[in-house]
Amino acid sequence: MNSTKSPTLLQALLPVILLIILLSLNVIVFKQNTLHGANQIVLLLSAAVAGLISMRLNVDWDKLLNAINKSISIAMPSVLILLIIGSLAGTWLISGIIPVMIYYGLQIIHPSVFLLTAVVVSGIISLITGSSWSTIATIGIALLGIGKTLGINEGLVAGAIISGAYFGDKMSPLSDTTNLAPAVAGTDLFTHVRYMTITTVPSILLALIIFMIIGFANNYSSAETNMESVLMVIDRSFNLSPFLLLVPAILIFIIVKKVPALPSLLIATLVGAIAALIFQPELIRQLAGEGTGQLKASYIVVMRAMFGDIQIDTGHKVINDLLTSEGMAGMLYTVWLIISAMAFGGVMEAGGLLRRITMAVISFAHSTGSLIAATLTTCIFFNITASDQYLSIVVPGRMFSQTFRDKGLKPEVLSRTLEDAGTLTSVLVPWNTCGATQARVLNVPTLTYLPFCFFNLINPVIALIIGYANFKIRRINEAEPATLISAAHNQ
Hints:
Layout: H1 9-30, H2 38-56, H3 61-94, H4 97-108, H5 114-129, H6 132-149, H7 154-171, H8 176-185, H9 189-217, H10 223-237, H11 246-256, H12 261-279, H13 281-288, H14 294-307, E1 310-311, H15 317-322, E2 324-325, H16 332-350, H17 353-362, H18 368-385, H19 389-406, H20 411-425, H21 433-442, H22 446-449, H23 454-469, H24 482-490
Helix pairs in contact: 1-2, 1-17, 2-16, 3-12, 3-14, 3-16, 4-6, 4-10, 5-6, 5-7, 5-9, 6-7, 6-21, 7-9, 8-19, 8-20, 9-20, 9-23, 11-12, 13-14, 16-21, 17-18, 18-19, 18-20, 18-23, 19-20, 20-23
């Protein structure tokens, strides 16, 4: 049997170049509908090209297939969470939980500070729970509804929500990525969290200033009239009660108690369904249709809210757009996208194409600044090609760990850099598990909110500047020789 050959840089780049060209073409031709199948086909075609190149390099077909299976299996927890989020959105809609959060939010938050508030609220909830996904799927949806009612651009509102949610996720000791990065790099959790403040705090402060300036610069002359009509319609359509806010409080509580995301969201979905039966019996009868008994109507509407379309007709177009959910079925395009993206990443990994590209990047890393730049670039590259934030942390972490030690840098320098790019840029890639999920949950295309995710965009730049400036770059001293760090890393 012929031995496997190493790919050339051109061979390794060819599927990526094809992917970028075809994805750009999709945006031109299909515009907002690229996720309805066009991007999925492009990812699969690019995977096929990567597979042909890999087979010419004598990579066995079974190895490629196993790599695809392994890559898709990595994304399965995210897919299941995504499906449950679809169901949660449905039950929280018919129960009145989302409407009540919009109702009270409109009365409490002044339009000029709404964007600032959206960042802060999302950041606090995500910091407490350690989950950007749960934050965006619950509080985020309500904040988006408030922002749209105030007449603020939906991309701008989504950018504020995502900036806050990913700040909290990045800094929370409960977050999976915050635990993963130091584990890969070889440092402890709280050293990692403390060291991240050097790049994270300036980034979130700059983002808050930008959102504050935009908020005060906007014109809200028509917001008050629109708010009054929206409040009146919500009040007429739902039985509003502050007790409904206990449901999101329960979700936050069980996540803080370290119940995993999947069962936490499932519990919140079922509690939402129970709340719908208690608080919205008239709405349930209306959605089920005339002549349907209450028991049958309850079963039909709750099930439909979890798996399919729910549209509450209020006679008000803006409110109708807010009070719509597609349930679990609405997530299927995103699941298709994630599977296609993970197949592409699996083939690229198995053929050695990803490694060849990243080794070319490493060859330019001579100084501390260029090493951090190479790590940031590699994490972003893996978010684009491997399509998963965990892979964008684990693979570059393993690749660069020895190089960081050889340069005399402490492991927290690596772990912070992995999060500065790996965690934060995942949501900016339309076919990444994070980008695809948040776009679907908020119903705002990734490229629409991307320019307004100021925190996510600023943080890698701050990390780059600090790296080249050698500002507070921790180095291994005589008390902590490289051999001890290496031993800690291998434990």
